[in-house]
């Protein structure tokens, strides 16, 4: 079974600074997908970024980028130029490559951006 | 991203009554629907997975006779909590997916309070 671990229950950062959220996972599959979702106080889950394991290039989406280290099974999220609206719970998630695979979530990291 | 609606957004009911939650994917066809439950400050816990026109597959520990899932069409799925009790109070989130390799989106959630 796959597991996803987020070792930082809470983090804080000053507005405009950069913060990195950590995520490690365990799997025996070679083809899989990794995601970061954010859940703001509204509790709506929002996809932040997605990474296919077969791609060596790290995914980026505007201020959000990942550091995907396949051998180390590490998938960290970097948020640049943090904004107050980035305050949310962030979940790292894993999904296997086989048909019907479900998402496995980490425990989450509560990020607070301070003015 | 895709548009997913969930209704109602908040419901309060008396113990012993049944509550139906609707989930609609408004701009894509969901061949697979996932239903999650989330307790405060915790991660999402998968309850069941359903494919359109088929019976749902429930996770270990989730009572299939208590949480009835119907996925009769590619745009609508329902979760009915039967004979609800206070311990069923939680935040329920639907998550449709179009195809096996596609991104999984999330509904805005339903807060259920059982008195």
SSE diagram, text form:
The complex is a heterodimer of chains A (115) and B (115).
Chain A: E1 3-5, E2 10-14, E3 19-21, E4 24-26, E5 32-39, E6 46-52, E7 60-61, E8 64-69, E9 74-79, E10 88-96, E11 103-105, E12 109-114
Parallel strand pairs in A: 2-12
Antiparallel strand pairs in A: 1-4, 3-9, 5-6, 5-10, 7-8, 8-9, 10-11, 10-12
Chain B: E1 4-7, E2 10-13, E3 19-25, E4 32-38, E5 45-51, E6 57-58, E7 67-70, E8 76-81, E9 90-97, E10 110-114
Parallel strand pairs in B: 2-10
Antiparallel strand pairs in B: 1-3, 3-8, 4-5, 4-9, 5-6, 7-8, 9-10
The count of helical stretches of chain A stands at 0
The fraction of residues in strands of chain B falls at: over 45%
Catalogue the unreliable spans of chain B: none
Structural class of chain A: mainly beta
Secondary-structure element series of chain B: EEEEEEEEEE
Main β-sheet, spatial strand arrangement of chain B: 2-10-9-4-5-6
Topology, number of strands of chain B: 10
Uncertain parts of chain A: none
Largest sheet of chain B: 6 strands, mixed
Can you put this structure into words, describing what you see?
The complex is a heterodimer of chains A (115) and B (115). Chain A is mainly β and 115 residues long. Helix content of chain A is 0%, strand content 53%. Chain A contains no helices and twelve strands. In chain A, the strands form three sheets. In chain A, strands 2, 5, 6, 10, 11 and 12 form a six-stranded mixed sheet that branches. Chain A has a four-stranded antiparallel sheet with strand order 3-9-8-7, with no helix packed on it. Chain A is globular and about 45 Å long. The model of chain A has no long low-confidence stretch (mean pLDDT 94). Chain B is mainly β and 115 residues long. Chain B has strands spanning 4-7, 10-13, 19-25, 32-38, 45-51, 57-58, 67-70, 76-81, 90-97, 110-114. Helix content of chain B is 0%, strand content 47%. In chain B, strand 7 and strand 8 (76-81) form a beta hairpin. Chain B is built from no helices and ten strands.
